[in-house]
């Protein structure tokens, strides 16, 4: 079904809800990858925050957003929040919180 073929708000909302569920599943995968990153960083002695990598990730998503017609600045802002949460997750692990 094409977006323009969605006939009404109820159907549109159902599509949005399904997409939101997929996005949450992807965020859960990202969370698991960050957990693995924390374990690797512990083994090799890296800190949770690596500023060059933060800027690389933000630049990458900015380019991806722009290539899809999205507001690059908005997406970069969202990703900075996501990255800060990931750094906090890694910090907790590196400081002994294994929960």
UniProtKB/TrEMBL annotation:
Cite the InterPro entries for this sequence: Chorismate_II_sf, Chorismate_mutase-related, CM_dom_sf, CM_II_prokaryot
| Name of one Pfam family that matches | CM_2
Q: What is this protein called?
A: chorismate mutase
Molecular function per GO: chorismate mutase activity
Annotated EC = 5.4.99.5
Keyword list (alphabetical) reads: Isomerase
Gene responsible for this protein: tyrA_1
Start and end of every Chorismate mutase domain? 3-94
Q: Name one GO biological process term.
A: salicylic acid biosynthetic process
Q: What class of enzyme is it?
A: isomerase
List the source organism.
Answer: Paracoccus haematequi
Q: Which PANTHER family match?
A: CHORISMATE MUTASE
